[in-house]
Design a protein that fits this description.
The structure is a single chain. The chain has helices spanning about 5-10, 15-20, 30-45, 50-60, 65-90, 115-130, 130-145, 150-170. The protein is mainly α. The chain contains eight helices and no strands. It has a single domain (about 5-170), classed as AhpD-like (Up-down Bundle). Helix 2 (about 15-20) crosses helix 8, helix 3 (about 30-45) packs parallel to helix 6 and helix 6 (about 115-130) packs antiparallel against helix 7 (about 130-145).
Length: about 180
């Protein structure tokens, strides 16, 4: 399935989602690897098999196997980190912030692609998962690496569009049909 096939499944009530989905691959501020890695990482983050598989298929011709794996790794590692660091940030008991995380996350140091690309994917996933601490951390690394605000903004905007696509499909029962007895 491709983005075009995915657009065809978007219900009428989500016309804006369909229009936004149409713009995803026309983002000019990002390199192809950044863009298509974002599609993969954000698609997985939605936990929608339909969205994830469509975006992975769309990205496959544009990503090396190493970049595809790195985008998937960004989604996986941020799923863990976003829960943990959101908890330490939001918990009233600040003692948790002083304890060692004891979470293996070596892929962040050696993702198999350019570090800024991996950080961009991690930032978008962190925004989708609502982890302010991770957003701040990845945004700082990106800015220190010279990534422009327009690129950072585009990554988060892409995450928002991908998330809305999954919600539109779910709301239409396209993703998880409900059977009536």
């Amino acid at each position: 399935m491709s983005i075009d096939a995915l657009k065809d499944r978007i219900p009428v009530f989500a016309k804006d989602v369909k229009l936004n989905l149409s713009t995803l691959t026309r983002e000019e501020s990002l390199t192809p690897q950044q863009l298509y890695g974002l599609l993969v990482a954000c698609g997985i983050t939605t936990r929608s098999p339909t969205v994830a598989s469509a975006l992975e298929a769309e990205a496959a011709p544009h990503l090396s196997p190493a970049a595809m794996d790195a985008a998937k790794a960004a989604a996986a590692i941020m799923a863990m980190n976003n829960v943990y660091y959101r908890f330490t940030h939001l918990a009233s008991n600040k003692a948790y912030e002083t304890l060692p995380a004891k979470l293996r996350m070596s892929v962040i140091g050696n993702p198999g692609v350019d570090k800024p690309d991996f950080e961009l994917w991690s930032l978008a996933v962190s925004a989708m998962n609502g982890c302010g601490r991770c957003i701040d951390s990845h945004e700082k690394v990106l800015r220190d690496a010279g990534v422009l605000e327009v690129q950072i903004h585009a990554a988060v905007r892409i995450g928002a569009i991908v998330a809305s696509t999954a919600v539109a499909l779910e709301a239409s029962r396209e993703e998880f049909p409900v059977t009536v007895k």
